[in-house]
Specification:
By secondary structure, the protein is α+β, with helices and mostly antiparallel strands. 32% of the residues lie in helices and 20% in strands.
């Protein structure tokens, strides 16, 4: 640790009381702090990479005068990121007399636990659902339970009793968080912390001006947002950072702003909220949005982080490329805007200067005649990384393709625009013959690698198949993808 960079004392609310932790290194995870420093061993470490959900906790903060609750993976969440927030672990749910919380009691009544290792994580995801739905008077449907528990894995139960438990919670006596009390405590905590410890090893500015100044002062600091990827650098690659710059507290970058012709999504907007904004304009994206990792990852990760990361298998970029999105880079020198696909120069390399941050993603609004689909191919339907992702947007009028925009992931060193395929479609009749030629162009456009997820040949073949599927769906054919497949158990 750089001795010239003091360590920030972390303050958060747990069990209605303020917890203060001093001398916590900036790279230390929340899970390490919970288990090793606070002795809260109910939170388990399973995968250490945000996939299994055994380490799930719930964080809360004030948003618009109300409490928001998010189930997140503590194994890849940096401990300093909960400073000024409320935190619940599985130890916090039962009443002082031992009475179980509905999230726990429902699991008991529905026999939702066997070996028990994953159970605390499931209980905390259920607690998040309880606060966000049951306490708001909204029913938990089977479909909602499946969606919100997609980030929790269990090897014993087959999931049915856990899904039963999710729906059973509402039938039990209500147990609600005293939100007025929590909001007043969070407000007091924030006031007491204002202006303190500004230049530290872990810096979390609250204004855009403060962020840009901090970036200029420490251009080598590791920028973090939700840490859903950087967290793996810590847990799997054992990387340590002397200086961390957290963008998630910047008020300006936590906003989604709607304009006449585009929506501007701040870099600190969570993936869950960013996809909600995109789905509001384009409802057909709902199923894809729910397949972007599990809910705890979407609750923590940000759209700006996913874009800046530039992984060739990051699912948001192919969609954003097809939508014609642009990004805004900012520094104290000013700002510049460029098409999203122009950001990348190579594998995990980009054009962001040392003193710049990615501040905004601007997404055009839908236009009349727009046809849009995005396809994700992965080994698991939920909570998995894509082998191939393909997004296609066409504007068709009187049977002719006026414009075509195609984004692809998993087929090159960066997320890419399929420009040759777009040329094969633009200006042509929207017909099977045009699609056949475009399929050939798409399969020839990239030379994907073979890896543990798929072979290069498979990826090339699938690209063409997905374009053919897009054509068939445009002609009204149904029941040709998993989105339209309904399990009988789910329908019961």
């Amino acid at each position: 640790m750089d001795i010239q960079s003091p360590l920030k004392t972390i303050h958060f609310i747990r069990g209605g009381e303020v917890v203060a932790l001093a001398n916590v290194p900036p790279s230390r995870t929340l899970l390490e702090v919970l288990r090793e420093d606070l002795g809260l061993t109910g939170t388990k470490e399973g995968c250490g990479e945000g996939d299994c959900g055994a380490c799930t906790v719930v964080v809360g903060e004030a948003e618009g005068g109300r409490m928001s609750y998010r189930a997140v993976n503590s194994c890849i969440k940096l401990a300093h990121s909960v400073d000024g927030q409320a935190l619940w672990t599985v130890e916090d749910l039962a009443a002082a007399d031992g009475t179980l919380h509905p999230a726990q009691e429902a699991m008991v009544q529905c026999h939702g636990s066997q070996c028990g290792f994953c159970t605390p994580g499931f209980v905390m995801s259920l607690f998040g659902m309880y606060q966000n739905h049951v306490c708001q008077g909204r029913a938990i449907t089977r479909e909602l339970a499946q969606q919100d528990l997609s980030g929790n894995l269990c090897r014993c139960t087959g999931y049915r009793p856990i899904l039963d438990a999710a729906q059973q919670m509402a039938a039990l006596p209500t147990v609600a968080v005293d939100e007025a009390d929590m909001l007043s405590k969070l407000e007091l905590l924030t006031k007491n912390r204002q202006g303190l410890e500004a230049d530290l090893a872990y810096n979390a500015p609250r204004t855009l001006a403060g962020l840009l100044a901090a970036r200029a002062a420490q251009p080598d600091a590791q920028i973090v947002a939700g840490c859903t990827d950087v967290g793996l650098w810590v847990t799997k690659m054992h990387m340590q950072f002397n200086h961390v710059l957290d963008v998630t507290r910047v008020e300006e970058l936590r906003r989604v702003e709607h304009y006449a012709h585009h929506v501007a999504i701040g870099a600190a907007v969570t993936l869950a909220d960013a996809f909600a904004a995109l789905v509001a304009d384009r409802p057909q994206l709902q199923a894809f949005a729910q397949r972007f990792a599990g809910l705890p990852v979407r609750n923590a990760g940000t759209l700006g982080g996913n874009v800046a990361n530039g992984s060739p298998i990051g699912d948001s970029m192919p969609l954003l490329i097809a939508l014609g999105a642009s990004i805004v880079l900012m520094s104290e020198r000013g700002h510049r805007e460029l098409p999203l696909e122009s950001l990348y120069t190579g594998y995990r390399k980009n054009l962001v200067a040392k003193d710049e941050v990615l501040a905004w993603i601007k997404v055009p609004k839908p236009v009349p005649g727009e046809m849009l689909k995005v396809y994700k191919i992965s080994k698991r339907y939920d909570d998995d990384i894509s082998a191939v992702c393909l997004a296609i947007k066409l504007q068709v009028e009187d049977g002719k393709v006026l414009s075509a925009s195609v984004g692809a992931g998993g087929v090159a060193a960066t997320p890419v625009r399929a420009s040759h395929t777009e040329a094969a479609l633009t200006g042509r009749p929207w017909s099977q013959d045009t699609v056949r030629q475009a399929i050939s162009a798409l399969r020839a456009e990239f030379s994907p690698i073979s890896d543990m997820r798929a072979s290069g040949a498979y990826r090339s073949e699938v690209l063409g198949n997905l374009l053919q599927r897009f054509w068939l769906e445009s002609q009204g054919l149904q029941q040709i993808n998993l989105e339209s497949f309904v399990l009988l158990e789910e329908a019961s």
